[in-house]
């Protein structure tokens, strides 16, 4: 109906224009020959041509009249169209991107981060830009964003996987396509986890300490002991705890035969000694002559505190380390099955699994993992090292669980240059409020692509509506003047008018944004109009065909005695688990090694041990050998 009306209006306009040109040309020509137009009928210019066309002079004048009128009309029409176009853009010309624009930007290819679907084609974001998705809970962010990307992304990936749903659905596919796949789930009830020692990334030299050792340890300490901004007291105790961590970690590192792990750091902190831990450290400084200057300086600074200050420093130091009293966490962080520094050299997939119930305890370890991933992959640019062949994708589902990750937020602006990309998923922009307004805006802006699902928060809906922009809509209004009561008796006493004006209209109103269909999404991509697309739904056949059984993870044989063994249903899963058998001799030898480490700590003065110390050491050692024989 609208198309037919538009066609009729265009046709009417062309007819009127032809009649105007016809009449105006005749008037101009007759004026040049000293005559006037007495009457008009359509086709008068043709009649004049037939009457005067044989005369060269009149023919020239008639031709000039026709061209001058035609030129004048063309200029007038062009000016009118320009004014009309300006009026139509008075309040903006917002629109959704077309398929041609998507194709021109290279978004219909097959490489990059999957972020939607248009027609039968999936949208991919190639290059180095980050992606952030704002999707409320139960809106399909896992099935519409996380899973499709894990079934499509060819390079390395680190995945924050709270419920292990992503591991169950995608690990098999990635392993079958040449990836080294690992699951780091240090709180797993069935003990199925790979191992990662956060301290393995600390650089060391031949003499156990290199010039970068202190730098790397301080980087870890900064993550463990963050200070609240604007709180001088918090800043003081955080700094003191960082210093104490440096001292104790260096002490462990510089003690031969002692494992360099967080569990061992905590065991040193918990050692039984007359006078407590400060007295033990004082004894170490007096009896150890082989400790580095960095270790001695950090310990001496701690020992300079007294009374309540010293107690508060110890309390601050202990807080993030308490999770390593858990034998499973201790065992899971006692060695490393993979190296974070190799993620850009080998295709590797690492899933970080922590259940919601363990979130409060595990958030520190997860944050440490992400920060170490960044720290060990932001040292060399790909163009400086040809072995760095692969990009690394950080897929951070439920980003908020990491707490305040300032190191990641600050690094978002330059990660891409190192071949590291972000796929950040949050439930609402309000979850970024902990970073402050400016830092949150900068973090969001550093994501070149923003995906939004139908929001539930009114402020989010208004923000999305404003970001979509406005367009100009031509609106008609009707008016009538005069006394309405006299219209029936004297119609000429009143008059009616129609006014056409340019009105502002939002591309989508806030209520329209909130009513966005479940299967649809809106995408903001720099350099393009907003994109209205469908979700890359996991239920599509292309993704379902890539679902393989998950890989098998061998249960971890926890070191620490019978109390660490699983019970009940967990015990049955532990016994019946598939995978390579665990060597009980090597496992219990490791347990014996842990016991010997504690014995060494008690015999701190190894150069001149007393007779009683030697006897106690030998008795414990022989008892351990007897127990090992029973295990055999």
Report on the architecture of this protein.
- This protein is α/β, with parallel strands linked by helices.
- The chain is elongated and about 135 Å long.
- The longest helix is centred in the first third of the chain and has 33 residues, at 56-88.
- It contains 22 helices and 13 strands.
- The strands form three sheets. Strands 5-6-4-7-8-3-9-12-13 form a nine-stranded mixed β-sheet, with helices on one face. It has a two-stranded antiparallel sheet with strand order 1-2. Strands 10-11 form a two-stranded antiparallel sheet.
Low-confidence stretches: 560-606, 627-632
Rg estimate, integer Å: 38 Å
Query: What strand line-up does the widest sheet have?
Result: 5-6-4-7-8-3-9-12-13
**Count the helices. How many?**
22
The backbone outline, from C-alpha atoms, is elongated
Please identify the oligomeric state: single chain
Estimate the strand proportion: 5-15%
Q: What structural class is derived from the secondary structure elements?
A: alpha/beta
Fraction of helical residues = 40-55%
End-to-end CA span: 90 Å
Mean pLDDT: 80
Q: Please describe the biggest sheet, giving its number of strands, its sense, and whether it closes into a barrel.
A: 9 strands, mixed
Q: Care to count the β-strands?
A: 13
